[in-house]
Amino acid sequence: MLDQLTQLVRDVDGAWAAAIAGLDGLLIEGHATLDADLSLLVAEHAGLYRAAHTVYTDTLQGGAPRELYLRGERLSVYLHPIKTEYFLLLAVDGRSNLGQARLYGRDAARKLEATL
Amino acid sequence: MILDPLRTLPGVIAAALVGPDGLAIEAHGDGGDGLAAELASLRQGMDRTGRRLGTGDVTRLAFTSERVEVVAVTTGPYTVGAAMTRGSDTRTAQQTLARLALDISLPREQA
């Protein structure tokens, strides 16, 4: 699992962290090239995903979100749900390759699904 | 759409038009999205190469791998390219790409 997260960070231009976590906000496994609090990162994004999930499924009748991308001034995150209880988080910088993040993030999520 | 002239060329497996973020503006064929993401990545490296070597902007890229030939041209912030079966004649594709690049960089005339 750690190998796949490490490879994902290597393969995506601008990526600096990847993690697997539960939608309860608890970190399962993570890899970062910068000194960052991955537990806080996944906990906060689990809350954001849960909120998006509720709005899309209950309020908007749009079905469950298949991916989530948030771009901040100094932090951007791509999030891909795995099964119904977990998600893959990929943190990227402002000059990242979002195409790589989506494609390789989705691919990693599919591979990790088998191990969760 | 924009990539239509590439779709019918012999040997073309995939084609993509992409901006700096790596998301395909338009893609064709299996692996078109992947080609877009990697062309954006290569473009970033090419921009650095041109800048550091003082050669000016790199405007064309071509490489051959074990199974495919890839040709791409740049226009403004965009990169448009095609992946072709190894051994294909890439000349027509390169001419088509050059024409597409011109179309993309110029404002289209309103009918």
TrEMBL record, chain A:
InterPro entries the record matches: Roadblock/LAMTOR2_dom (IPR004942)
Residue stretches making up the Roadblock/LAMTOR2 domain: 2-91
Pfam families noted in UniProt: Robl_LC7
Name recorded for this polypeptide: Roadblock/LAMTOR2 domain-containing protein
Organism: Deinococcus xianganensis
From TrEMBL, chain B:
Pfam families with a match to the protein in the record: Robl_LC7
SUPFAM superfamilies: Roadblock/LC7 domain
Gene3D superfamilies assigned: Dynein light chain 2a, cytoplasmic
Domain Roadblock/LAMTOR2 positions: 2-84
SMART domains: Robl_LC7
Protein name: Roadblock/LAMTOR2 domain-containing protein
